[in-house]
Amino acid sequence: MEFSPLQIALTALIVFAGFFVRGMSGFGSSLIAMPLLAFVMPIHTAVPMMALLVVVLFGFLIMRDRRDVIWREVWLLLVPTLIGVTAGIYLFSSLENRLLLKCLGVVTIAYAVYSLVVLAIGVPRVTCSERWAPLAGFGGSFIDTMFGGGGGTVIVIYMQLRGIGKVAFRATATMLWFFEIAARVFGYAVAGYYTASTLLLVAMMLPVTWFATWCGERVHSGLSQAGFTRLLAVLLIASGIALLLK
Fold this sequence. Notes:
- Helix content is about 80%, strand content about 0%.
- The radius of gyration is 17 Å and the shape is globular.
- The chain is an all-alpha fold.
């Protein structure tokens, strides 16, 4: 499909908002952008476009932040993540059922509220073992591949419950998501979703992606661990609401 000047301008604004949030928090670009992009273009165009933008950005970020990666967490999550991508690509053409996204939205909001309560009144923090990694990896990547977003919150919740700090969280999540999204891009390409007009739009959005990420990271650099947790909780609540409305 061809994109009008108005569609390109709206896409640029939405992409900026999504990647600004990602620059601040380390996740959330697709959760912010996808519900809005669905009003601008078909979902089968928006999902592959966002995936390609993210994988190009993450390719540079993992080189910059690789020393902060917790590699054991990546390896534990990687295989189930790739299996989830494979299953999601297979079912990508059937996007009618939103029950899974609504359930994820409820869980996401509940966890975010719990995190804010922990900070406010000191409720003992719940943790989880690495035995939950296969479920988190598969579930997150399957939802991401099917719906273009939403699954990242599963990994965010898992890493928060594992007690991973903000620097290691950003680096480790980015490394995992690079592998996941690269597999998704390959699958979308094989399935024929990258038309010439879609690739041209991606090329136009790349400078927007970089600038938005740079702006978001400037905000992030001034956050304390407590401030980061509060920001993450607020974004999770917003993500959960977006999922319920999607």
